[in-house]
Amino acid sequence: MALRVEHEIHRRRRGRNVGLLVVLIGFVGIVFGLTVVKTLNLGSAAEMERFDHVARPALDVAAEREAADTTDAAAPTDQGEEETQR
Amino acid sequence: MTDVSLNDGLDDGRTPEAGFGDYLALLKPRVMSLVVFTALVGLLVAPAPVHPFVGFVAILCIAIGGGASGALNMWWDADIDARMKRTRGRPVPAGRVEAGEALGLGVALSGFSVLMLGLATNWFAASLLAFTIFFYAVVYTMWLKRSTAQNIVIGGLAGALPPLVGWVAATGAMALEPWLMVALVFMWTPPHFWALALFVRSDYGDAGVPMLTETHGARATRNHILAYALLLAPVALALGLTSVGGPIYLAGSIALNAAFVAGAARVWRRDQATAEADRFLAERKLFKLSLWYLFLHFGLLMVEATPLVVRLEGAVAWL
Asked: TM segments (chain B) (predicted)?
């Protein structure tokens, strides 16, 4: 059977290819959109750095310092409670 | 792919190459609509805010997961589908898509939907979606469908789970409310399906699929419909007493359940000769009512979840 230039099969293939293109663009859009939403919903810029997949010692030092500050802030209250008990 | 392959099969009227629509048909879009609606309600009534885009992706993933299990169903049931008039035109038995392609699409989309749902929301919801796909594709399709007349009762769990997946996607945790939504869909499925089975002449028997109407007859099916309608009512009403319910839902649910039980009782009182005489009028009405029953129950849950101010504004605008 001789094939015409534009056969019905060609049209169907084109439809399939266009459909796949739309699906792939949609997938890219979803991944991009999710990335934007997830990063914008982070508490601080420092948290964003955690997505680098690289060890960031500076972040750990900052976290330790923050934890230490919290402990220091809580300490006088404990002393106050002890004095009250005496 | 080259044009050389085109010569095969074109002269005998077959359509050797599938169009994009054939692959979409593998995902059973009509079944997907129920999944999308109930999952959306589960997600929206959950007591946790979800970013609209994340919510959209979650519902999309649940829909794709449902579609994937449909493709797996079409792969496994290609032999049955080829023997039944209603399903003969599906892409696999019609020869437009190969069974292996349906399997590949089903597996790929299952993996994709579970992975994306996990990344978009949480892995608990993703594992529930994976279980739903497994239950439909393996427990229902491969095991129950050909072995017991209760296939749609137990297999109905797969169709009932989406609101739970939606809820967990939003909250990350289980609760009583989504399980009652699951119970509502689960108990609704048998009377809905059997009402249809009573008036649609099916060829399940020829295909070797045990359906209640074929294995136990119309009388037993009518008894089952009434029993399930009676059991369904307390489940639907109980949902109204939880945090997602309220007076509007309860009022609607009482009316809907009264109508549904009355319809089921009407079907139960009839025998086959009476039904055939009026061309299954009561059965058709009950089937139509069952569609509204589920849609309105979940719709009323959405109304209850909408703040009062918005509801009042909407009512004023409508008037």
From this structure: 31-50, 56-76, 97-117, 123-144, 151-173, 179-200, 225-242, 248-268, 289-310
